[in-house]
Design brief:
single chain; Rossmann fold; GMP Synthetase, Chain A, domain 3; 3 domains; 16 helices; binds xanthosine-5'-monophosphate
């Protein structure tokens, strides 16, 4: 086990992820309980995370001294490096040479940390984000890499196997960072790289059982990957103590609601309540043009419907959610100050407070692609696991302006054709999300000998790693022409197709 001591950095989970990718099990423990965690886990190595705090302030968090006396290797990252130095007799200074963003380090000395990646005298890109820096090293340490703003960009006490880096190896902007962390856990700690998602599954099942005991759990199924994986995992852990509630708002993609019901009821034998709430949602949305009101209406109705169904089932004290790590960070503001609401996502928060239930969130530590790996591990069918993300408010936010049953039906058909062509062309997995949008605009066309006056369909496809930023996908024109022809010929109500070439930012992925 690698113990990760969390000092409150936004990217601590990325450290855990890199360690997982290296095939080693890790646990994150907040610094307040790190002493207990260290004694309990008896880790073979320790990583100290970054932090928004400054070691130059009084009462700033510290690593338990026991860690430095136990003879285990330690890697301090950013704040972790600084507190290690401060605690072992070095000096830290605040503020003058701040470095944020891309920086370059120069390797001064070989170190097992750099094995196979960084040779002496070479320069490498890293990601920095610090105000303070180390200005005097504790005894036994030497400099192994420098940068313009941080003369102690990487330091090592090879005898005690203590390492510190001022930059963040866990983020993607440090291209060799993953290898560096892998060097720490394999070459320095000597941990075997045999830990896998299969092991995660076993462990998650144990944790769910320990947490839930004999109590009942309800889980909202949306048809998406996250809630599905969470539900199958929970069912494996606690069997029929789990009931799933699928609130069908009538705003899913074509055929999707049926697929969810068949898969969960018939294939997995998971108790499932299919709430046919299409009329409720579509009636409430009638005539509503404002995107935020649409989102909030759907969110509110979802909660009310879910709550009513949960009451009918009765006796459940746990609510399961397929919350992922990015949901956790996206709902916390980076600066600590108020963040601007761009769109009110309806799937994070709200429900548990209102229903006064305890939460079980077995995917909370995972990223989307890891959830997919876990889904495959659990035997979920590939087309399901690999499915593009789909927003909670569904097709309502892909129908700018008023939503009607007719428009949803038209949109479902166009969307299905578009996705079918994308799959046939073998492009589905290269794209983060692809979907059709039905514009509230009618234009004139000519079909056969007649004039048409029908809706415009916009197509969107983007690449992205996490949905936070995105680029439009560069289809070739022949492909686009083929999709447009099929949609116009096959879908009654659409006579014009356009392609959205906006990136995010400044656009968003969805249109509302
Ligand atoms: P935007 O449109 O904000 O979308 O660029 C970023 C990602 O989030 C998805 N999205 C949502 N997901 N509930 C969700 O579960 C929502 O209310 C919601 N709104 C947007 C969107 O599909 C994209 O993947």
């Amino acid at each position: 086990t690698i113990l990760i001591v969390d000092f409150g950095s936004q990217v601590t989970q990325l450290i855990a992820r890199r360690v997982r990718e290296a095939g080693v099990y890790s646990e994150i423990v907040p610094f307040q309980s790190a002493e207990e965690g260290f004694a309990r886990l008896k880790p073979r190595g320790v990583i100290l995370s970054g932090s928004p705090a400054s070691t130059t302030e009084t009462d700033s968090p510290r690593a338990p001294d026991a860690i430095f006396g136990a003879g285990v290797p330690v890697l301090g990252i950013c704040y972790g490096q600084q507190t290690m130095c401060a605690q072992l007799g070095g000096r830290i200074e605040g503020g003058l040479h701040r470095e944020f963003g891309r920086a370059f380090v120069e390797v001064q000395k070989p170190s097992p940390l750099f094995d196979g990646i960084w040779a002496e005298g070479t320069r490498h890109q890293v990601w920095m984000s610090h105000g303070d820096r180390v200005t005097a090293l504790p005894k036994g340490f030497e400099i192994v890499a420098t940068s313009a703003g941080a003369p102690f960009a990487a330091i090592a006490d090879e005898a005690r196997r203590f390492y510190g880096v001022q930059f963040h190896p866990e983020v993607a902007h440090t291209p060799d960072g993953a290898k560096l962390i892998s060097n720490f856990v394999h070459k320095i700690v000597g941990a075997p790289g045999d830990w896998t998602m299969a092991a995660f599954r076993e462990q998650a099942i144990e944790e769910i059982r320990a947490k839930v005991g004999r109590e009942k759990v309800i889980c909202g199924l949306s048809g998406g990957v996250d809630s599905s994986v969470a539900a199958v995992l929970l069912h494996e852990a606690i069997g029929d103590q789990l009931t799933c509630i699928f609130v069908d708002h009538g705003l899913l993609r074509m055929g999707e609601a049926e697929q969810v019901v068949t898969m969960f009821r018939d294939h997995y034998n998971i108790p499932l309540v299919h709430v046919q709430a299409q009329d409720l949602f579509l009636d409430a949305l009638a005539g509503e043009m404002d995107p935020e009101v649409k989102r909030k209406t759907i969110g509110r109705l979802f909660i009310e419907t879910f709550e009513a169904e949960a009451k009918k089932i009765g006796g459940a004290s746990f609510l399961a959610q397929g919350t992922l790590y990015p949901d956790v960070i996206e709902s916390v503001s980076f600066t600590g100050g108020p963040s601007v609401t761009i769109k009110s996502h309806h799937n994070v928060g709200g429900l548990p407070e209102r229903m006064d239930m305890k939460l079980v969130e077995p995917l909370r530590e995972l990223f989307k692609d890891e959830v997919r790996v876990l889904g495959r591990e659990l035997g979920l069918p590939e087309p399901f696991v690999g499915r593009h993300p789909f927003p909670g408010p569904g097709l309502a936010i892909r129908c700018p302006g008023g939503v009607t049953r007719e428009k949803i039906a038209i949109l479902q058909q166009a969307d299905a054709i578009y996705l079918d062509e994308i799959r046939k062309a073998g492009l589905y997995d290269a794209i983060w999300q692809a979907f059709a949008v039905l514009l509230p605009v009618q234009t004139v066309g000519v079909m056969g000998d007649g004039r048409t006056y029908e809706f415009v369909c916009a197509l969107r496809a983007v690449t992205s790693v996490d949905g936070m930023t995105a680029d439009f996908y560069p289809f070739d024109m022949e492909f686009m022409g083929q999709v447009a022809t099929r949609i116009i010929n096959e879908v009654k109500g659409i006579n014009r197709v356009v392609y959205d070439i906006t990136s995010k930012p400044p656009g968003t992925i969805e249109w509302e």
